[in-house]
Design goal:
Elements (H helix, E strand, L loop, with lengths): L2 E6 L15 E2 L2 E2 H12 L2 E5 L11 E3 L8 H11 L4 E6 L7 H8 L8 E6 L2 E2 L3 E5 L3 H9 L5 H5 L4 E5 H4 L7 H4 L6 H21 L1
Parallel strand pairs: 1-4, 1-6, 4-5, 7-10
Antiparallel strand pairs: 2-3, 6-9, 7-8, 7-9
Helix pairs in contact: 1-3, 2-4
The structure holds guanosine-5'-triphosphate.
Length: 206
């Protein structure tokens, strides 16, 4: 199945105080890191809402048609551009995502569902999820009406929900870390610490 990757890179990053997509981890930007994983699961990668500058790896930038309207607007911009039935959406502030989790979600991407949404620790995670192109008209209506809450929109689409146990076989990282999202400087420091620990465990194994 051909799949498009849509990376959300818009928003104000106001809590972080600096563009989250450009934070550096392990010698690369968070956007480069995430796009590298999305690329393994998708045939084409689109970045929506990025704040200018050239994108790495020849990623395609697509501007939001509803600027400043949040993640739903970023998903909308990506889906408008896609030619595939299914897309995998990934926020650029989830630095520990892996392709295995995306591929696991895509195994459920089929009739009668229009979305495959993880639920981790009891919380829906629509910003690392799979969406069918069919959701686009309803999404457009909501944006036109200024109804921007993602959680409300989810109630209007036929989605299958997948818990952490079902995704547990996907890669080496625990689901709570895969879905960890960075909002504040403290979150960035935590991720830096986890990566350092992972690297030192790997060194011990060698
Ligand atoms: N394309 C696009 N992406 C967005 C938009 N708003 C937020 N995002 C992305 O959606 C994800 C979650 O964003 P939030 O943490 O809710 O908002 P934020 O603007 O990044 O951060 P705050 O200003 O601190 O709330 C991140 O990957 C953002 O880059 C938008 O208007 N357009």
């Amino acid at each position: 199945m051909k799949v498009t990757g849509i990376v959300l890179a818009g928003g104000a990053s106001s809590r972080m105080g600096t563009d989250k997509s450009q934070l550096r981890l392990d010698g690369m930007t968070v956007l480069e890191r995430i796009a590298g994983e999305v690329r393994k699961a998708a045939n084409r990668v689109i970045v929506t809402g990025s704040k200018g500058g050239s994108l790495p790896f020849g990623l395609e930038a697509v501007p939001d048609q509803y600027p400043g309207q949040g993640p739903l607007a970023g998903l909308h911009a990506g889906l408008k551009e896609t030619r595939t039935e299914w897309s995998i959406l990934c926020a650029c502030d989830m630095p520990l995502v892996n392709a295995e989790t995306m591929l696991a979600l895509l195994t459920l991407a089929d009739e009668p569902w229009n979305a495959v949404i993880p639920v981790i620790g009891g919380r829906k995670q629509p910003l690392l999820a799979a969406y069918h192109h069919r959701v686009l008209p309803g999404l457009e209506e909501r944006l036109q009406a200024g109804r921007l809450r993602m959680q409300d929109w989810l109630d209007t689409i036929s989605a299958v929900y997948v818990d952490g146990e079902q995704l547990a076989a996907s890669g080496s990282r625990a689901a709570d870390k895969v879905f960890f999202n960075m909002n504040e400087p403290e979150d960035y420091r935590r991720v830096t610490g986890w990566l350092r620990e992972e690297a030192s465990l790997k060194n011990h194994d060698c």
